Amino acid sequence: MVIRFLIYRICSTALLLLFVCIMVAQDAAGTVNLDEGKALFKAQCNSCHASNMKVKLTGPALGGVEERWADYPRTDLYAWIRNSQALIATGHPRATVLWNEWKPNLMSNFTNLTDAQIENILAYINGVYTDTYGPPKPPPPPPGEESAQSGGSNTPLFVVIALILVIFAIVLARIISNLDYVIKTRDTGFPVTRRTLAQTLTSKGVIGFVIFALVVLGGYTTVNNAIALGRQQGYKPGQPIKFSHAIHAGQQKIDCQYCHDGARRSKHSNIPQTNTCMNCHKAIEVGSQYGTAELTKIFASIGYDPSTDKYIANYDNLSEEEIERIYKKWISDTYVEANNGTLGQMGEKIMNDQWEGVVAALKNPENGDNKIQGPIEWTRIHNLPDHVYFNHAQHVSVGQLECQTCHGKVEEMEVVAQHSPLSMGWCINCHRQTEVKFNDNDYYKNYYEKYHKEIANGTRNKVTVEDVGGLECQQCHY
Which of the chain's termini has less CB crowding within 10 Å, N or C? Predict the structure, then answer.
């Protein structure tokens, strides 16, 4: 009985050690991760809050948010971020002050955020707010706690814990085997064959447990990869022409729908034709950032000769050598004009390098495209699955959404990246939270009896996309 009790004692100790290791791992997983905080801020918060944390936009400047909530439990700040209207409804003092200042602007709900993710976002906000020079850094840790804060990966810690558990399991298996040998020898009165470590590790129980663990791990990995299939948030491919949205939409304030005019009247937001570029670039022939390097690609694709300010006759029938002479002359003349009337070896190299860039951007032998003349093959960034129906006009013209709602602050992007996850859950949450803009919107007149009167008599304070059928399966899948 004593020996069996000892076995049970060892097993309970092993379980306790396993529990402690799990708690340590969970604590490590809760360590501040600034990279995740930045990604979550860009995906969830950046459409309403300024990136520098100091400027008011649709929502307040987030710098110092923790100090402003310091008089209340931390859980109240979590509750505000997850569902602000629910906290306002309880009469919370801080929530009421914010609502009175910013109403009728509603803060989106983020019920899917965990406490750790919220802490990561807050740490990123604080890092940007307290260090305006250079990239965001984590706030300095208290003295003596330098090792407690880390924005890196916790993988090495998990590996160490796993190795410790494996070693402990082997030692425990050996101890149990020895105790089992002692018990059998005492009960039978005869010595029995002692099981070796190899026999213990290759027993049915151990092999069965390993197979079970592999099945669980494989299933978990498969499901996670299946959920992430086709997701490309943050996808930021290079383009054949270095087109800067920061210059065009940011500095020059060109409206998105001037170039992507299909967004307001079509299912698709079209890639602008080269003719749209030429509306401006017949007058602006040398770029402010790349000079002739990138604009010459546009001119060569459409057959415009900037030297003569005319479109080239029979351009489709010209050979590549003839086209090369036209545009090399343009590049060299522009360089000479800007460099005191001389070309020199540097000018020759620039001219040749720029022409090679034109050829690389406009020709694609892999697709059988061996001609410079023709449309520019831009790399697609946003792409929904074939079984999903999405209509830009429904959102832009009817819903009156800003492009930045889904695409982020494109006017600040040198190279455009996919800002939002474009997942089904992301779309559903948006439909649940987004308020329909009824004012001066003829599309919603047919809801007069059902919703307009309820709003007028005070029985309803808002109508979301969900209320007008935004969660019906047939809206996106039919």
Answer: N
Q: How far apart are CA 149 and CA 152, in angstroms?
A: 9
* The pLDDT value given to residue 56: 77
Q: Which residues contact 447 (CB under 8 A, 6 or more apart)?
A: 438, 463, 468
Confidence (pLDDT) at 16? 54
pLDDT at residue number 141:
46
> Taking a C-beta distance cutoff of 8 angstroms, is the pair 470, 464 a contact?
yes
Cα–Cα dist 235/378, whole Å: 14
User: Alpha-carbon distance 392 to 400, whole Å?
Assistant: 10
Closest CA to 304 of 210, 436, 154, 295: 295
DSSP code string of 87-101: HHHTT-HHHHHHHHH
- Fold type of domain 32-148: Cytochrome Bc1 Complex; Chain D, domain 2 (1.10.760)
Q: In the 8-state DSSP scheme, what is residue 310?
A: E
What is the C-alpha to C-alpha distance for residues 396 and 392, in angstroms, rounded to an integer?
6
Question: For the chain, what is the radius of gyration of the CA atoms?
Answer: 32
Of 118, 116, 107, nearest to 77 by C-alpha is 118
Token representation of residue 111: 């019920």
For the chain, what is the mean pLDDT?
82
DSSP assignment letter at 57: S
What is the pLDDT, as a whole number, of residue 286? 93
Over the stretch 226-280, which tens digit does the pLDDT of each residue have? Answer: 877 777 888 999 999 999 999 999 999 999 999 999 999 999 999 999 999 999 9
Instruction: Specify the pLDDT at position 18.
Output: 54
**Residue 304 in this model has a pLDDT that exceeds 90:** yes
% the chain with pLDDT above 90:
36
Please enumerate in sequence order all residues whose Cβ is within 8 A of that of 367, keeping only pairs 6 or more positions apart, or say none: 377
Tell which residue, 439, 323, 426, 337, has the closest CA to residue 373: 323
Q: For the chain, which residues make up each domain, given as ranges?
A: 32-148, 235-270+386-415, 272-367, 423-478
What CA–CA distance (Å, rounded) separates 338 from 320?
27
Angle, vertex CA 190, rays to CA 186 and CA 191, nearest 5: 90
d(CA 31, CA 123): 11
